[in-house]
């Protein structure tokens, strides 16, 4: 039986979003929504879409996991990955969280920079050993002949590093310094609530957008 895509729809109505609901600092608001999503049982509430632009002007996106919120949003990856190569060319990106069961989305735009080596070292040391070995074993985004390439590399690296696993020199963190946040709350009849923060002198300007 064919799936009738045109007829798939869901009306939203869990809650509303007003200016009075929002913190003055969007990073605090994001932390609050992340905490609520996790408490509500959303699986991998820290998963976010990362969109970048390549040298040819074509966008690409993928899911990454946020690993810190400070002056910005932090995630980690191989510096040889497609996303890292694109960020080296165009150091701006967009992040998006989508918590469907909470009927919420958050979009964040801003400039991206690498984390310090010390930050990357500290996070890498906190990872489970299999993930540490995996960071060495995978030539991320490169063409490989078969799955066996990864399996053989994993075996060899476990022999090479029987104890502590150092951070690969081409692996580390990125931090997006936000200048735009949009908080989206689903509402009935597709008249959703959309409130956007834009960085302004001395703070943030908050406005409502039409859905």
């Amino acid at each position: 039986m064919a799936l009738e895509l045109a007829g798939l729809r869901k009306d939203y109505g869990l809650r509303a979003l007003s200016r009075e609901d929002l913190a003055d600092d969007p990073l605090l608001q994001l932390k609050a929504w992340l905490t609520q999503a996790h408490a509500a049982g959303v699986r991998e509430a820290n998963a976010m879409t990362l969109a970048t632009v390549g040298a040819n002007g074509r966008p690409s996106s993928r899911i990454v996991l946020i690993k810190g919120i400070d002056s910005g949003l932090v995630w980690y990856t191989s510096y040889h990955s497609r996303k890292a190569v694109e960020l080296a060319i165009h150091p701006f990106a967009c992040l998006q969280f989508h918590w469907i069961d909470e009927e919420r989305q958050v979009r964040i735009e801003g400039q991206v920079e690498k984390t310090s080596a010390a930050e990357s070292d500290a996070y890498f040391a906190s990872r489970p050993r299999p993930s540490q070995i995996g960071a060495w074993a995978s030539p991320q985004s490169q063409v490989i002949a078969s799955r066996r390439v990864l399996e053989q590399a994993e075996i060899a690296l476990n022999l090479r590093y029987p104890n502590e696993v150092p951070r690969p020199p081409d692996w580390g963190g990125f931090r997006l310094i936000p200048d735009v946040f949009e908080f989206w709350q689903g509402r009935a009849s597709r008249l959703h609530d959309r409130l956007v923060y834009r960085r302004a002198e001395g703070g943030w300007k908050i406005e409502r957008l039409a859905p």
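The mean pLDDT is 97. The longest helix spans residues 26-39.
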